[in-house]
């Protein structure tokens, strides 16, 4: 049986996402073993006294560096400063240059910078610089993936493979958290960065040898599959990197502006749960460190399977003519915004119902993960020829929530963790999610926009994004 090269390529992108996201979160675990011993001071809420916190779970931190809490926080958060600043430039580079080499530089630089952390940590400001540049080069990941989706993934399979490719973000998060803890416990914090930093180098070797940036240049592929990919509706135009960027059309496009708003507000729940859930579970629900990590990892692992399933269902319905690509995207945005908002409302008012809160928080992460088959791939729907640039534009404000939520929550609970104070944080997230859905429901689209094409291809402008299309010749299965 012949293996489809586009499937192998998509799996390589999934692994690249695993690597980038794994390296994004490993510092949060490693830093536990990097700072000098400080007695753990229990500062959890006393509103739920029925949840005992065993004294044995409050462990001392023992490491070589005498960093304050603020300095530790900056070591982690300065990564996102580089990530935010690098988002638009990396999107531009992804569209204008050979995407294969941009991705290779992104992954390779991540690996090298990660392995430099143990050396850089001896001087705190050098570590800040290394972490900043790690975030800067990591910013290219999502724009590059969006460009390659338009190059390698055929229209009939788009939602399915988007789900599989972005499953790597969840798998990378889970694997990184679990392996970082094990490595820290049995070997030491330095080994986390040496081991994790080696994996990108191995990936780069395989990707460089066996894969090209587009099917037109791919060596190891049948002519039949090459033709099948290139003839797909919405395939990225060869030579699009030399096309003039239609800036005015982009910034006056209602579907694109709706996407900017949706990307900005629709990411609030994802980043709130990613950055603040462990804190809430520890301070309010009073889970110990071990239980907290296990519970937080579970929904991300489930995400790795539910997102491809959602994508498969959306593709199936579109192929059958049950709904359009626009309806499919709006359905995914609905799943990622409305159900988690309902769950957060319930959590905000059930108080000390630990089991109920835990179940609903888990479900919230699972359904919120649909952002990867919703608004985070809509850039490729609107304009595959400019997918990298569009991702750079939309995900720049889309990353803001990762910055502002931690200080907002910190200000709210500055005088102590209470359910009432956390309720305000929940409502901020809920309002943003609902506004994101309303915006995309009324103004969003998944139809390829006219400005995606050069003037010579205006006949493509009227292709519907939605009705059941005429079947085209499929590949012969062998």
Automatic annotation (TrEMBL):
Q: Please identify the protein, giving its name as recorded.
A: Major facilitator superfamily (MFS) profile domain-containing protein
**Keyword set, alphabetical order:** Membrane, Symport, Transmembrane, Transmembrane helix, Transport
Q: Which GO terms describe its biological process?
A: monoatomic anion transport
What membrane topology does the UniProt entry give? Answer: Multi-pass membrane protein
The organism sits in which domain of life? Eukaryota
One GO MF term, please? symporter activity
Residues forming the Major facilitator superfamily (MFS) profile domain are 10-448
The record lists the membrane-crossing segments as: 7-35, 74-94, 101-121, 127-149, 161-187, 193-214, 256-273, 293-310, 331-351, 357-377, 389-412, 424-443
Note whether Transmembrane helix occurs among the keywords: yes
A GO cellular component annotation here is: membrane
Q: Where in the cell is it found?
A: Membrane
């Amino acid at each position: 049986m012949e293996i489809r090269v586009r499937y192998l390529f998509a799996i390589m992108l999934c692994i690249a996402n695993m690597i980038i996201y794994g390296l994004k979160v490993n510092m949060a675990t490693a830093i536990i073993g990097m700072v000098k011993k400080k007695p753990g001071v229990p500062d959890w809420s006393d509103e739920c006294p029925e949840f005992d916190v065993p004294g044995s779970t409050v462990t001392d931190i023992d490491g070589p560096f005498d960093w304050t809490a603020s300095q530790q926080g900056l070591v982690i958060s300065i990564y996102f400063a580089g990530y935010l600043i690098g988002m638009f430039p990396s999107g531009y580079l992804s569209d204008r240059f050979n995407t294969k080499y941009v991705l290779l530089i992104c992954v390779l630089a991540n690996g090298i910078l990660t392995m430099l952390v143990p050396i850089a940590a001896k001087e705190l400001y050098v570590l800040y610089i290394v972490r900043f540049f790690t975030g800067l080069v990591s910013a290219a990941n999502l724009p590059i993936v969006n460009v390659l989706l338009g190059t390698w993934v055929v229209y009939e399979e788009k939602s399915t493979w988007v789900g599989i490719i972005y499953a790597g973000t969840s798998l990378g998060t889970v694997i990184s958290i679990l392996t970082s803890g094990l490595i820290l416990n049995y070997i030491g914090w330095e080994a986390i960065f040496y081991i994790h930093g080696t994996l990108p180098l191995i990936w780069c070797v395989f990707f460089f040898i066996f894969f090209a940036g587009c099917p037109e240049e791919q060596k190891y592929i049948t002519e039949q599959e090459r033709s099948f990919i290139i003839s797909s509706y919405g395939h990225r135009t060869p030579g699009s990197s030399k096309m003039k960027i239609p800036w005015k059309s982009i910034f006056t496009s209602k579907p694109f502006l709706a996407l900017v708003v949706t990307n900005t507000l629709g990411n609030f729940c994802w980043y709130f749960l990613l950055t603040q859930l462990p804190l809430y579970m520890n301070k309010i629900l009073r889970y110990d460190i071990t239980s907290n990590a296990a519970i937080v990892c579970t929904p991300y692992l489930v995400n790795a399977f539910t997102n491809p399933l959602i994508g498969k269902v959306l593709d199936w319905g579109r192929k059958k003519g049950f709904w359009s690509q626009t309806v499919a995207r709006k359905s995914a945005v609905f799943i990622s915004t409305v159900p988690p908002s309902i769950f957060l409302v319930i959590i905000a008012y059930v108080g000390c119902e630990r089991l109920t809160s835990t179940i609903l928080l888990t479900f919230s992460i699972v359904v919120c993960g649909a952002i990867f088959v919703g608004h985070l791939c809509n850039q490729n729907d609107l304009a595959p020829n400019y997918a990298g640039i569009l991702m750079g534009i939309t995900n720049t404000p889309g990353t803001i929530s990762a910055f502002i939520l931690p200080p907002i929550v910190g200000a709210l609970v500055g005088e102590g963790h209470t359910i009432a104070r956390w309720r305000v944080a929940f409502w901020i997230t809920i309002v943003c999610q609902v506004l994101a859905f309303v915006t995309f429901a009324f103004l969003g689209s998944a139809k390829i926009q006219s400005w995606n094409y050069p003037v010579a291809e205006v006949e493509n402008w009227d292709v519907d994004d939605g009705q059941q299309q005429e079947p085209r010749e499929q590949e012969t299965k062998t």
